[in-house]
Each structure stands twice: as structure tokens, then as C-alpha cells.
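Dear colleague,

Following up on yesterday's call, I've attached the two folding results inline so they're easy to grep. Please treat them as preliminary; we haven't cross-checked anything against experimental data yet. The first protein's sequence and C-alpha cells come first.
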Amino acid sequence: MNKNTNSLFGNLRVVEIASMILAPSASVLLADFGAQVIKIEPPVTGDLNRQWHKINGLPISEMAYAFQVDNRNKKSVVLDLKSSAGYEAFCKIVADADVLVTNYRLKALEKLKLDYDTIRKLNPKIVYALATGFGEKGEEAHKPGYDTVSYWSRSGIEHQIFPYEGWLAQFPYGAGDHPSGMALFGSIMTGLYQREKTGEGCKVSTSLLANGAWSNAVMLQAQLSGATFREKRPRDNAYNFISLHYPTIDNRLLKMSMVNTEKDWRPFCNAIDRNDLPEDSRFCDNEARIANMPTLIKELTDTIAKLTIGHITKRLEEADVPHTVVSNHEEAANDKQKQANGIIIPLDHPEFGKMRTVNSPFEVSGADKIPPKAAPNLGEHTAEVLAQFGYNDEEIAALAEPVSE
């Protein structure tokens, strides 16, 4: 099979047997830099994420936007791995691959003969990348896991920031999967580096459970170190004013992030037209502010509530005080700073026309990414890929058919 050796990963061939977001998001990073990613999907349904944008509560669209962002620049091949012929075709493809990426559950991998020990016999030099919900050991290793539970809830993050009854909506779709996918990508690159040093393939792995813990590592380390946790407080009696949200007169929300209070206190007060506060004995230094925090929060809240977001952000920018406006989705998607840094980039979709998409989150000097293409239709590249392994049209058609149970 031909490789695109002009790009950074053009000499890599990746086989993806995965669904939803975590593992596919790692593969798309490889595809963006030119790796040939062959996405093997079951007949009829394909990757479940092809339909997940239709789940009740998500933004309404005819476009499979959830599938698009994690599957661009890939080739879709339909194979029924439960059939002997489908599995045989898979074996031919994986024997020629550098990397296999999967997030199938452990029992399914064993049943389908997709486990590492089996794959290693087919291809001793392969880097086998496994993503799981709860890890490979322990009583919960075989449980189904998604980021909503394995990442956000089990990490302790939700406990810290959610009210007891929970929000009206959960964390955004895939918001734990994507950072976990970055970890899986990092493990793949580490495995490839090890192979370069030793000449041998290896297994690399990560889990939503591990990534959730890493995201909340500071607070977990506090617990592990015997620290005493403070009780939760309502906003009006918060421990510190420096990172609260403040409503403005035009119904926007200002988010503060004043880490260096000693440096930024006077400039901040000047920006909100409250030069009296630094001279007030209740707020003149950090010790005084801590002692009078509820009063200070009320003073700042009442003051900012009389200002427009445009006025206050202009003044805070001039004062070089860390802050932002809480963006809605339209603003976040059309953010000029994102566009200036190539975070939001053009996509010419054959069905939906010229639009934009979210770029993968890093660059490498001297290495151009592949322009984003539409995510493949189910089985779009089955004939193209299998023909390169010697299959004729009749054999290819037979392989694409589901095998009855």
C-alpha cells in the first residue's frame, strides 16, 4: 500500500478499531500529520458516533458533526470481524501496520481475537494502543466507561464544582475524551520511539479513569498528603474574590483570574473605577481582604453590575489584569484569537459546502498538516483498501455484508 512520505507521519500506517471519541481522537492527530489511518467499522451501524449527534439534548443538525471532528482524513473500511473471512482480511491489513488503536472493551477484544497477544503474533513490531474506561486490572476492568462517569465523576472534579443536585446539563460532549485522547496519542508516540530504539513493538495504554485523576491531580495529591479540605461555600461567602464570575449591566459574565493579587489589586480597582478600595482599611492588603471577603465580594459585584462588558474588558486589558468574558458557543467558534492561531480552520465539505472545523491542538515547525477533509462515509474506502491486498470485486462485496448471528 502506498504511503504519503512527504508528510511528518506519512510513513505510518494506522489501523483503528474503535468507536465514539477517545481512541478516534488520538488517531485523528496522526491523520492530521499525514498518517494513513484505516478505520475498520462493522457493517450497517459503523462507529456509533456516526449517529450520536442525534441524541436528545445535543445541538440539532443533519451533519454528523460529532463524527466529523474526530474522523477526518481517515479511510473507512467495513469488515465483519465476527466472520472468518472478515477477520482474515483484517489480519492482512494489521500485519502491514505500524499502529493499532482500539477502545473496544476487554472481553470484546478477547472474543474477537483482537487482544495484544494475538495481534503481536501477527505483527511483532506493531505498537498496540489500548484505551479503556477503568483500566485493565481490578474489579471494574470490564465495566463500560464513558467520560461522564469515568473521567468527570470518578476524578472528584464534579464533587468539587457541582451543586449536590447537579447541573441542568453535564460537561460538554467529549470534553473528557479529548484530553484523554491526547494522552493516548502521547503513549503511541512514546511506543514508536521505543520501537525505534529497540526494534520491537509494544503495548501502550491509558484510561479515562487515569486521565480524570491526572486532570484533578492537585486536589487528589492534597487528599493523599493529608491536607484538610475546606467546606463548600456559596458565592457570596467565597474564600477568594480572585476567580469568581461577575455579571455586568448588559447581562454578560466577566470571569476573573487574578493570581498575583499583590501586583494586580490597584490596577484592577482603577479599571473598575474604584480607586477608593486600596485605601480602605478593610481591603488594603491581603490579610484585610481575607478577613472581610464577603463584604469585598459584594462591593465588587455591585460595582461591576453597573458596568458594560465592553468598558470593563477594555480597562482590564489596559491594566494587564487576567480576565475574560464567558463566551457562548457562537463567540467561541468565531473567536479571532483562535482564527489567528489556526485553531479554527477551513473545511470544504462535499455535502455541506465551505465551513470550518476545529484543528488538532499543536503544531510542529517544518511539518505541515493535511488539510481537513470530510469524515468518510461508512465503508467508503473498503474497495480501495482491500484491492491493495489482492481482493477482487466479488470478494470485496461479500466481505462488506454482515454475517447473520
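Below is the second protein, in the same order (sequence, then structure):
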Amino acid sequence: MSNEIGSQFCRNTKYERDKLPRQPLNLRTKPPAYKVYENSKQIRLPAPQTQQGPGLWQLLNQRRSVRKFSGKAMSKEELSQILWAIQGVTEPGVPAYGEVIGLRTAPSAGGLYPVETYLGINNVTGIEPGMYHYCIEKGTLELINKGDYGEALARAALDQGMLAEGNVVIIWTAIFERSKWKYRQRAFRYVFLDAGHIAQNLALAVEGLGLGSCQVAAFFDDEVNHLLQIDGENESAIYLSVIGHKKKK
């Protein structure tokens, strides 16, 4: 068992007293805080509602994984609210590591934010089906490719048909170097923890809107990477979530 890669990783990335890695941070080699598709079509989203809403304890009690969806269209307003909840900027203009960043709704180790959000949109009013990137800095969607990606995402997720039936599939990727720049190999621990924080924000926000979600960790990594047109090395898919209107029992 000790030779298994997971066990090796946990053992080799442990922090031990008096053996912490110490290296100067080179600001010249720091990856950019934001990924932007400069030449893509930009879709502006409605401003999110940040006041009132249902209580946290109620949402925690009600949250369940939902795997059956009604097919009713989701609104732009609902989508905007969810995206803000998972990675929206709550405090802009914060100096960090020689640049200015925005603090977000979900925590990130060292404020490095390695996780990117993509969307496979199946059925949202006023937005064409296709693959999109969420531009956190601007609060917009960036079109990567038009088309129906629901069936392809379902196949890539071990044939889980709910990804084709939901309104939107959220795809989280990691740009690993953002965290490795500071934390070296231990960064991989932090990347997956970051994704977990973000996914919980999504689950609670979706419940607050009366919608449903199911988080998906079982998928063929390179098939999802291919759909996103990313290399799977410097940036790779790490987590999925399908969201939509719940099907009545």
C-alpha cells in the first residue's frame, strides 16, 4: 500500500516542524490572476442580488443532490446569481503579490485562486447553447464555442445522463502553476480544497434559488479537457456540477 501514488503524495507533501520549504517568491514568474479570452464574444450578466434571501441554516438543512431535472429553462438572473455565489468578487482592488486582485465569495489558499469556471450551457433563456468561460474580473461570460455539449459532457462523465438533462453543467479547472508558484507540490492539496469550497457555495446558492444541483467527480479527464480545448497539464478539469430546475416527484 505504501507504494500507491496517493499514499506517496500525502506522505511527500506533509508539513513537518523545522522542515518547512523556504524559497523566495519571484514576482516576475507569477502567473496572471485571471484568465481572459480576449477575442471571444462577451455576454454581460445581470447584477447579482446580495441582500436578503433565504437563511443559511435552512439551506444547509434542505440541500440534497438532485439528479432529475424538469427541462424548464433557467433565467439569466438565476445563472448570474449562482456564478457570483461560487466565485464572484466581493472586495475589489486588493493589493497582492505585486498586482491588484479581487477577493471572492469562496476562500483560496494564499489568495491565489487557481480554479477557473467554465459552463456547458444547455437551456438558459437569452443565452445560446455552447461552451463558455466565466470571466470573474468582468463578471461576464466568454463564448468558446456554440453548440449542444450536453450529450458529450454526459458521455465524458461516465454516461451520467443528468448532465444532458440539466440546464447548465459547471466545469471547474485548475491552473496549477498559480498555486505551485508559492506552495510547490503541496499546492495540489490546496487546489482541490479550493474546488470543494466553491462547490459548496454553488450547492447552497442553487438551493436558495429553488433549483437543484449534483456535484460530479467521476469523469474521463481528458475527454472533458478536450471539450474545453485545454492541455490537461498546465490546466485540467478537476470537478463538475450539473444544475437545473428540479423535476417534481
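For the second protein, one point worth flagging: The chain has a mean pLDDT of 95.

Best wishes,
A.L.
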